[in-house]
UniProtKB/TrEMBL annotation:
Its cofactor is Mn(2+); Mg(2+). It comes from Candidatus Roizmanbacteria bacterium CG23_combo_of_CG06-09_8_20_14_all_35_49. One of its GO terms (biological process) is 'de novo' IMP biosynthetic process. This is Phosphoribosylamine--glycine ligase. The lineage of its organism: Bacteria, Candidatus Roizmaniibacteriota. It catalyses: 5-phospho-beta-D-ribosylamine + glycine + ATP = N(1)-(5-phospho-beta-D-ribosyl)glycinamide + ADP + phosphate + H(+). GO terms for molecular function: ATP binding; metal ion binding; phosphoribosylamine-glycine ligase activity. Keywords: ATP-binding, Ligase, Manganese, Metal-binding, Nucleotide-binding, Purine biosynthesis.
Amino acid sequence: MKENTILIIGSGGREHALGWKLKQSSNVSQIFFAPGNAGTNQIGKNINIQSENINDLLKFAQENKIDLTLVGPEAPLVLGIVDLFKKNGLKIIGPSKKASLIEASKIFAKQLMKKYHIPSADFMYFADFNQAKKYLLCAKYPLVIKADGLCAGKGVMVCKNKKQAIKFLKQLMVNRIFGQSANRIVIEECLTGQEVSFMVVTDGKNFLSFLPSQDHKRLKDKDLGPNTGGMGAYAPVPFVNKKLIKEIEKNIIAPTISALAKENCLYQGILYPGIILTANGPKVLEFNCRFGDPETQPLMMMLKSNLLSILLSIIKGSVNEQKLFFKSGASVCVVLASGGYPEDYKKGEEIYGLNKIKDKNLVVFQAGTKEENRKVVANGGRVLGITSYGKNIKEAIKKVYQVIGKQGVWFNKMTYRKDIAQKAFLKKI
Ligand code: AMP
Ligand code: GLY
């Protein structure tokens, strides 16, 4: 392998964790992050180009002879960064603009699933407010309303009754709070069960599965409070046993990859369905066209295989020649967020105690941080993802919480959940 110089696009904990893992490969000599954070600048070099500025990213990659680019967030994928880089002869990991529609359009994803019998909630879709309203007036509740396009995770509402549903519909289609993303909307059946994140790498034909993981989307303990980008994650999920993994691979992953190929939409990259474990088996809630954040943090802690070889096999079409090996045991990531997040919050709080962590089984993946006068300060909603490895989930939980607070890592007004990974001890449905 001669992929010495790597460019990672994005600035979150996910990108820090991917860079941390890639850095362990002897073939990697330099990693650039665009735009990165204070943590990524310690393991590589930050470049001041935003992840959606795909033309400047191309120019940077050409001028700096980047051997391989890895895309973290969905926005540049949906804008067509992979098509642009490939057209210019550059190696890049991620699906094409067309294949990214699996995340960028919920209607595209739902129609694909329906056509190829991939289990998911029953649905209808509408492009007209009055017709959607008419449907909602006679529908059974609860139900779920989703904007078709990208809304940074905020375009979905589980509606308990008619009043709530019509209010949300108005916000989407009349007040246009998410602009064109809600030109069309989906109304779907409300499913119940535990949610699981299931990521695979695929070359469009074969795939390799990461350990199943679980995110914690709500701000507060016991899944209360508003939705966030994710307040913590852990892997593996004990109740997603080998049999259930096989079922997910057979009924969801394999048919989705082959459906996309049949639709002339070859999918190469990371495919990540959000899955709900219902009484009638696992069903897809949504597809993402990238690694999850914060699930990637525990997954990178658990991964034994060389990440660079795995990523390159996506482009070479040789995923079938690779294997993903994981440590036994478990990893837990707890996100420390700025007080007020996901609404307004203050930036600039100094972060204390980062150099107190000496245990090799604890890594602080940084997200919304920046360096200011030689200090690391909070610069976003989700600030840090403290991630532990332990011989089991209990040990990993204990280890991570021991270093959160004034005896370890902290900043003023930080907020975090105290129950990350407790779902591991629940029953699956
Ligand atoms: P999505 O962006 O489609 O994954 O939706 C965000 C969140 O809304 C999911 O993580 C679920 O908690 C919830 N959700 C989405 N679709 C459904 C559904 N059909 N039934 C119940 N909850 C859902
Ligand atoms: N953890 C949720 C996401 O990455 O979309």
